[in-house]
Amino acid sequence: MSAPLLAVRGVKTFYGKIIALKGVDVDVNPGEIVTMIGANGAGKSTLMMTIFGAPQAREGTIAYDGRDITKLPSHEIARLGIAQSPEGRRIFPRMTVYENLQMGAAVRDFAHFEEDLETICQLFPRVRERLQQRGGTLSGGEQQMVAIARALMARPKLLLLDEPSLGLAPLIVKQIFEAIRELNRTQGLTVFLVEQNAFHALKLAHRGYVMVNGVITMSGTGKNLLADPQVRAAYLEGGRH
């Protein structure tokens, strides 16, 4: 087995004196889709933000592609080939969709901009239709597509996706998860996904982790976690959207 692309070891993250992550270990191997499920407030988004350098881990290490990135600032982490589509989308509302995508590409360079833009527009046809619209005028689903597209414009080796289905209609959720699967299948993109929608996330993922109160309580293949009675009782009953 090749070395993990992302290796999180014993990570503890604090907000002031409150501990949010209590010694987390996670591996994401090259070419995998790995998901982390858990209830709201379990610490999933904190882990995503810690990997991306804000806040920084107080204890433990985060290694990416064999390099320790635990104490690097976010902009340096982005340059190494990690892109993040954060919770709440956070696109630039006053910029057009096209300008938002330019901001994503600016992390690297613009040498492949037109080519990458075409790939994105094939993946998300709605984005092509909205290129000249301001981000703030888009629907929630369209904004989520733009947030993912903006992250992809940086040509990442590892894509961090934080709650991509949050607050979206089931049809849009399906489109977004299909796009993630397609990127992984055709481009070998490695994806680490944090998601409350456990059913969709575990169906998509090669492997998954369950987080409860800042601690990982279970891990396994997506298939095995989907079938696990504890996981089903806690996260899947009535949750098949």
UniProtKB/TrEMBL annotation:
Transmembrane segments: none annotated. GO terms for biological process: L-amino acid transport. It holds the Pfam family ABC_tran. Keywords: Amino-acid transport, ATP-binding, Nucleotide-binding, Transport. InterPro entries: AAA+_ATPase, ABC_branched_ATPase_LivF/BraG, ABC_transporter-like_ATP-bd, ABC_transporter-like_CS, BCAA_Transport_ATP-bd_LivF, P-loop_NTPase. GO terms for molecular function: ATP binding; ATP hydrolysis activity; branched-chain amino acid transmembrane transporter activity. It comes from the Bacteria. Residues 6-238 form the ABC transporter domain. Belongs to the ABC transporter superfamily. This is ABC transporter ATP-binding protein. It comes from Bosea caraganae.
